[in-house]
């Protein structure tokens, strides 16, 4: 990240230097050899600026790829954890609370085994689009791996976030994926945990994962009570 910042600062410096050289050459009566030397310096500065801009773009592209899931275009695990840590840092400063949702497709292996991996990929993309379309711009959605997704509902109190969780759950249970001539219904289990100023990232994920496990094993297609990693059980 520091490399990007350094280059961003260098490019304007080169642009200013090039502009100064051009102004000096235009406004002063200088000998031709000096003007040619200044023109050469100007060309070199402009070329250096162009190369810096290209390098900056490549670095930013690599940074984006490092936190993006290739199939769905969502954040990957690394990107999601980075966003979650930033949200927890804000929570420690401001006291805001939020929620982490973990979503896992039901019987995903059966879809892959029965209809093939292209159908499984299509199911993942459908779920990714649904989640992305049902969160705010300040929220984050990620594919953590396999058929597991995560949603970060930032700066959201329990009362406000419950209808949103219920809406996501209901829409997940009504999904269909096109597998050739067959439309296969999808469903997903959801577990969630609340965070606050004293929350720990790893413990928060663990609590949401336990809630997801209960949803899958005890009451499929239902969101269980949310777990709080700082000692208060939050009911949906």
Describe what this molecule looks like in 3D.
- With 236 residues, this protein is of the alpha+beta class.
- It folds into two domains: 2-66; 77-228, Reverse transcriptase/Diguanylate cyclase domain (Alpha-Beta Plaits, 2-Layer Sandwich), CATH 3.30.70.270.
- Helix content is 58%, strand content 16%.
- It contains seven helices and seven strands, in the order αααβααββαβββαβ.
- It has helices at residues 2-27, 32-66, 77-94, 108-115, 117-133, 158-173, 201-217; strands spanning 98-105, 140-145, 148-153, 176-179, 182-185, 188-195, 227-228.
- A five-stranded mixed sheet has the order 2-3-1-6-7, sandwiched between helices. A two-stranded antiparallel ribbon has the order 4-5.
- Strand 6, helix 7 and strand 7 form a beta-alpha-beta unit.
- Helix 4 crosses helix 5.
- The longest helix has 35 residues, at 32-66.
- The two termini are 39 Å apart.
- Residues 1-8 and 220-236 have low confidence and may be disordered.
Query: Termini, distance in Å?
Result: 39 Å
What would the average pLDDT be, to the nearest integer? 80
Beta-strand content: 15-25%
**Percentage of residues assigned to helices:** 55-70%
Helix-strand pattern, N to C? Answer: HHHEHHEEHEEEHE
Report the radius of gyration as a whole number of Å: 26 Å
Q: Find the count of extended strands (DSSP E, 2+ residues).
A: 7
CATH superfamily of the largest domain: Reverse transcriptase/Diguanylate cyclase domain
Q: How would a crystallographer describe the biggest sheet?
A: 5 strands, mixed
The number of helical segments is 7
Mind telling me which CATH architecture of the largest domain this is?
2-Layer Sandwich
| The number of domains | 2
The CATH C-level name of the largest domain is Alpha Beta
The stretches of 5 or more residues where confidence is low (pLDDT under 50) are: 1-8, 220-236
* Structural class estimated from helices and strands: alpha+beta
CATH structural fold name of the largest domain: Alpha-Beta Plaits
Shape: elongated
Strand order, biggest sheet? 2-3-1-6-7
